[in-house]
Amino acid sequence: MTDSVILDVWCELQCPDCHSALDDVRALRARYGDRLDIRLRHFPLEKHKHAFAAAQAAEEALEQGQGWPYAEAVLARAAELGRRGEAVLLDVARELGMDAEEFDTALIDGRHILIVDADQAEGKAIGVTGTPTYVIGGERLDGGKSQEGLRARIEEIADRLLAEGAEG
């Protein structure tokens, strides 16, 4: 058994619901630290025309060591991303002190498209239809309609899995 539990967060960086879900993600991170491996998974929705580019940019941020900080910063500017498009993705990279030119190149050469496509395909296969959706311990929790009670449910499952891991 591993001593950490994986929480996949299926997210879309132009999604206002994902932005409001960040408080839950931060609270979970604060509560569990390294015992909960929170993974950003991409599920760009067609209705948001910059979401696919944002997902690729988030993968580039991950390569540059700032996956979550970048995702959180872009989500905070989801409305601006809708208006200004990919320029916002580069602005955020610059503000976080990352190599913005590398971001630009990554968006042009499409080096992260396969990862985003694979996430999206896996999401569809397990029944993700909107964002945010959480998967922990094989259970899917849909936060696209309401965040209400989801964090408590995630904590309940995480506590159980961590206890089982400690016994194993």
Word description of this protein:
This protein has 8 helices and 4 strands; from the N terminus they run βαβααααααββα. The mean pLDDT is 93. Strands 2-1-3-4 form a 4-stranded mixed beta sheet, sandwiched between helices. It is an alpha+beta fold and 168 residues long.
What keywords describe this structure?
13% strand, 168 residues, globular, alpha+beta
Write the layout of secondary structure elements.
Blueprint: E1 5-11, H1 16-32, E2 36-42, H2 51-63, H3 67-75, H4 78-84, H5 86-95, H6 100-109, H7 113-125, E3 133-136, E4 139-142, H8 150-167
Parallel strand pairs: 1-2
Antiparallel strand pairs: 1-3, 3-4
Quick structural summary:
The protein has 168 residues and is of the alpha+beta class.
Helix/strand class = alpha+beta
Shape: globular
Strand content: 5-15%
Mean pLDDT: 93
State the share of residues found in helices, binned by percent.
Answer: 55-70%
The radius of gyration is 16 Å
Number of separate helices: 8
* Parts with pLDDT < 50 across at least 5 consecutive residues: none
Query: Order of strands in the sheet with the most strands?
Result: 2-1-3-4
Order of helices and strands: EHEHHHHHHEEH
Task: Report on the biggest sheet.
Answer: 4 strands, mixed
DSSP E strands, number: 4
Termini separation comes to 6 Å
